[in-house]
Queue: 2 jobs
Job 1
Amino acid sequence: MAEDNPEPVDGDPGDRRPSRPARLAWGAVIAILLGVVGLVTYALTHVSSPTAPVTPAVTSPAVLATLSSVPSSTFDAIGVTAPGTTLTPPSVVADPPPSGNRPEVLFVGSEFCPFCAAERWPLVVALARFGTFTRLHNSSSAAQSVFPDTSTFTFADAVYSSRYVTLTGVELYSDTTGPDGTFTRLARLTPSQAALVARYSPQGDGVTTGSSPFVDVAGRLIAVTSGLSPALLAGQSQSQIAGEIARPTPLVVGSDGTTPPPTGQAIIAVANQLSAGICAATHQRPATVCLSKGVRAADASLGLPVPPASAGG
Amino acid sequence: MPALRWQPIASLLLSIYGLGASIYLTITHFQPKALACVSNSTFNCEKVTQSPQSEIFGIPVAMLGLVFFVPMILLCLPAAWRSADRRIHLARLALSVTGVGMIIYLISAELFVIKAICIWCSSVHITTLILFIIIATASPIVLATGYGTTDGTPVDGDES
């Protein structure tokens, strides 16, 4: 019956071979599968090597040590004033205590933002009185910002431990831009954080975009901008600013009639205010901080209850 | 004319699963705490679903999954597979090609940019890939002249 089976052609009912479109389809499927397998294989064999991660430099132990060892006498001497500049105190609030064991300090900002850069300094100084930063990274505000290249830190990947308080640092955007020209997104607010920000800054979309800092000090103080002007930090390196904090320069008029910016005083003064908010949530613990003259001065200036001075203070 | 056997029901079930996973991922995009997922140095759903790559032109990728799977379910209904209207089969094929292109981009983003893998997202990627395989290999059959008819004439819709 060989004469009944002539050479098959595409479309013949007796043709058992795949049609040309079917062969094309299978070719496409195999190509896609090979592509996916190739992608995964390449990623597993090349990308996992620790070559490219662009992470900010770790803050030097010397700077951390300086910020963590500001003498009590310095805090007490400065109190809440910094001659020659205007500080913006946080607002006193009375939110219900958080459900966790320890009060939380929430910082929301962005690495590109100069006002966030300014606010991190007193916040780090204040928190260092209640605990220890074991990891912090350097950062600076964006070069194209109104106060460019302001030296600061980033709370992204920061590690802070304390018996009294927890730190949640949310850096919404990086200080670097992506291919589309916008700052790279680093994190998002949780719904509860977004609600908190919206409650205290209903019209300030700069907060939710990370272009101005939002600080909730344990439900006792709220700051929606920096306590000190970023102008006070202009042109100074991180170690220079740390040195100013360790040894605040007295306000002196130079021979040319100019005065140096009261950088150290301003940072210490705002740190006292933030410390007062933390103390209000920790039931004035530790007493060595909370009953100190500088923090009590901040209590009085902010309208927080002023605890009585004690031997511990 | 070869007949389709398991492909319609398999593609429909996969599309339904993909829609369910996309709904879940859309919810967790806005409520990250609702995300139940393994979290370690390799697998981290939250890192993926909250990454900058989780949105395209401001639209969450998970929501694009909804936009993909809803019409895919309709196009994978048995009646749609039986249709003699070539436009339905071409639309299904085009949608699956779009889907597989999208998942190649998303897999690349996970592996090379975010450097984390989201299990839930990967399940949607695998679903989309299998859907593409089924649809791409079945399409030559259903696009052949006369498919969906008993005698070579369309059963529903005109032959275009």
Job 2
Amino acid sequence: MIRFLPRLRVEKVTLLGSLLGVVAFFLPIVVLKPNRVAEGTPHALWELHAPLIVAFLAVLVGTALILSLGPQTRLVRMMKVTAGILIFVVAVGSLIRAGSVFITPEMPFGRTTPGSGFWLAVLATFVITDGSLRNASIPRGVKSAIGLTPLLFLAVVALLGMLDNLAILKEFHNRESRFVGELLNHIYLSFSAVFAAILIGVPLGLLAWRRRKLEKPVFVTVNGIQTIPSLALFGLMIAPLAFLSRQFPVLRDMGIQGIGNAPALIALTLYALLPIVRNTYTSLAVIPDAVIDAGTGMGMGKRQLLHFVEVPMSLPIVLGGIRISAVQAIGNTAVAALIGAGGLGAFVFQGLGQAAPDLIVMGVLPIIFLAVLVDRTMGLIIRQVTPKGLRSQRI
Amino acid sequence: MIEFENVIKRFDTFTAVDSISFTVPEGEVTVLIGPSGCGKTTSLRLINRMIEPTGGYIRVQGRPVKSFRPEELRRGIGYVIQSVGLLPHMSVRDNIGIVPRLLRWEKERRHRRADELLQMIGLDPETYRDKYPHQLSGGEAQRIGVARALAANPPILLMDEPFGAVDPLNREVLQKEFLKLQRKLKKTVIFVTHDLDEAIRLGDQIILMQAGAIVQHDTPERILAEPANQFVRDFVGTDRALKRLSCFSVEDYLQEAMTVPESELRQARRSGKLVSGSGIVWVTDHDGVLQAMQRVTGNPEGEPLSEPLSRIVPAEVGINSYSTLRDALSRILGQGLPAVPVIDDSDHVLGEIRLADIEEVNQSELTR
């Protein structure tokens, strides 16, 4: 039988990505603001007076669209990934171009913000590259490297000062000296809270498991803490700590006051407790009785049971709890800024107070970045410590 | 040797074991059996001090168990439980090596021992040593549980319903393998079960318990032939005649079988040598491997045979020497033959078991 047309096997994910790219053309690529609080005016791609950028983007989106219709060979996949990443590069290029076209000396406080077209182009990049890589037989490391290239490109361009007209970078440069300090403070606050929560939570989980009578009170308390809104808990810390520090000058000398780091640390630690206590308890509860019975029957003492059975079997689950606590603590620490503890939340609340959305974003972005980083790192560690025999069963 | 002397175990108000005394002889399998809650598992766990008695004495090799450190004692006693309890995060090899590791054997010796045991329980070390428990079937896991208990070569094995969670087909295979192993190793075994067939098949002695007390302590055949009271009679059931056949090994009732190599069949027939007490001649190849059978009618004069030679699959018709008369009877009835051949692992004919003999055993010993 003769076929006049090759049958089209549409790769739907790439098709979706390319269509997103098409739509991006017609949406404002950038928003221009005369100053940090004023309403901006949106501008489309063609208003940049850069035919090269328009042409290049059109070619890339068109390429991805055409490639999505044919058979998905290795070469096609690689071309799609390249096109996807280049879409991002061109989109960033248009931001750079927008900076030099719109921000003129007559507009000393002028700044740009990415428009919906830009974000759609970023989404198109993600959909096209991720869809092309997902089912490909490529090592994990290579996939991550490809995924990181756009971010790396963005970082380099930003460091070269080419994006300095972006509102968020303007806010950043105004506070550059404070930024590092608050970042470190944020890390310090959340990490010490998690560390303290480990020191308290793991023994507490163990206790709840070993002494059945304590199980209920422990969990009622820890669950109870978790239900208090974070804002309220931070507020609740102020009065008693202020009272204590007034009564005992020693405490005040140690820096313990109603506001600042001390109440923040206590509240953050309390919040971090639940996942750690819960997972420690669960990790012991899921060890089958038969395994403990067999171990004891073979002549393991308490210490050997711990070493050969309980620790290796429960460690991944306990670490899973710490992972949740850590990610949560990084988020919660933002609220700690309200009671004067500092951290990246300080920028967020400042931005809220000054009605400067870009400042808020500047505070939030590194928090998200930190949280993702910690989550990924913990994931890697957990993979490493999970015994082979348990890997296919859980997590 | 394990001795119980007036051993009592009370849990709050419930008396699980009520002043029992018995002796488990060296190198034999003693089965503790009874309905659930009769105290059989408690008795077993008293031996390795998983449970401490309320009163009485337990001695192992003449020494009171209380004089050992519990961990010390347990490392010297193999322990197999129904749910196996393999450590899920350890490979098969490491699981087998647990007790040796506790005894501080060197790694190389532990690995060598694990391979040796895998071989012994009929699992290829190459394939199995690096597997993890979740990759094993129930039967394989249970075999490895037994291997693990044997790792440090303890003289005593405690087995708590070790084959209880395995399906009936596999259970029988495991029981046969256990018997084979036990013949070689001659461990002192205490075996808890609630399955009477298993008790009869495996036990040299059976201790039947009820409500924490021993009702009858006897050999399997005597428990079946002479139940001590109504409880035992009910427990063993109405088919005890059939069950009793499980007490007798085919080895003891082996009759000489007539075998002829196939190449000599014609000549044997002509010279009138084709006679058999059972009416069947087993035909082999020139290596003595069972190939076919020839029914012979009672005419030694060498008349032409009416029945043709029929090819057989040895494993389907023959039984091995570890089987019991009950297995033999079942095979005889299933095949519709007056006798079945007893064969070894390479299908050589060792002898035969005849229906007439089984009937005789049944008659004579039951009326005794």
